[in-house]
Amino acid sequence: MSLVKVSVENVASNDKILHEIDTGKTLEENIDDIRRIFQLPASMYGLKLVSTNDGKTLHTYISADNFGEIKDGYFLKLVYSLGLLSNRIFDHIDDDFKEKSFQDLYELSVDPEFIKEIVKTEKHHVVMDVFTNRDLSEKEATACLIAIVHLFQKLYITDINQKFLDKIIAITKTAKNHELTKFALSVIHKILCHRDPTFAKWKEETIHQITISDFMVFIKNKGAAELQYGAILVINALIRCCKGEKRHQFIKEIDKRSFRETVYENIIARGNVDKNMAHELYLYQTHLLRSRVQQIKIRRDFALLSQTGRTYLGNPN
C-alpha cells in the first residue's frame, strides 16, 4: 500500500477533508472511497487536480494516465465526471438549455482529458458539425473553436470541408470578438502546418483566400498582443507553405515599407515581447533578410553579366 496525503474538496458542498489516496488502488476505487466519505450517492464522479504542492494552479481532470503523478500536499476536488458532463453538453447543445452546454464546452475544452473523452465517444464530430453548420453567436462559436484548436493540436481532426474553412477565414476578416478571432487564427495556422496529405488542398485554398494585408488590422492593435502574435504566426506559416511566385509575392508584401514600419512601431518598438513572439519575429526577419540577399545576388549577377557583355562587344577576338 502506498499512500499520498492530499486535500479534497466536495463539489456539492465545498466541504474539505484531508485524505490519503491509495495509489495501490485504481482511480475509480479512490473516487468511490472519497464519495462515501462525503456521503454522496453512487453516481458519476471524477477527480480534478486544483493545485500542486508548490502552489501551481491547474484545474485539470485526473485520469488513469496521470493518476500516478499525484503527490503529497496536492489539492484535489471531487467533481462530476467527464462522461457525465460530456453527455450533458451534447444532449442539450441544440435545445433550450444550450447556453449551459456552450458554457461547459468553453470551460472544459482547455482540459486535455476532456478532449480525450469527446474523441473516445466521437463527440468531436458533433463539435465540428455544430460550428460548421449552425448559426452561432460569437460566444458559442468561441466555445467550439477552443475545442477545435485542441483537437487539431492532438491531430484528432483528419479532414475538414470547404464550408468549415470559409467560416474560419470569414471570422478573421469580420469578427469583432478578440478571443474568437484569436482561435480562428490558430486554426488557420494548424491547417497550414498540418502534415497529412489530405490537408494539401486546404492549404492551397487558404493561401488563395487570404492576403498579407488581411493581418494589418491585427498587427496595429497594440492592445491585443495575442492577435498580433496570431497574425505573425500565420504570415510565417503562409510563407513556409508557398513556393515559387506566390512565395515571392508574400515576401514582397512583407518587405513593403508600410508593412515593415507597422510591425516595428506596433510590436518591435514596444519591447518586452514574450519568447513565442520573439521566435516568430526572428522568422519574419529571416524571410526579409533572405529576400534582401537574393535581391543583392540578382543585381550582382546582372552587373557581372552586363560587364561581361560590354567586354565581349568591345573585344571581338
TrEMBL record:
InterPro entries: ARM-type_fold, ELMO_ARM. Residues 114-268 form the ELMO armadillo-like helical domain. This is ELMO armadillo-like helical domain-containing protein. It comes from Zophobas morio. The lineage of its organism: Eukaryota, Metazoa, Ecdysozoa, Arthropoda, Hexapoda.
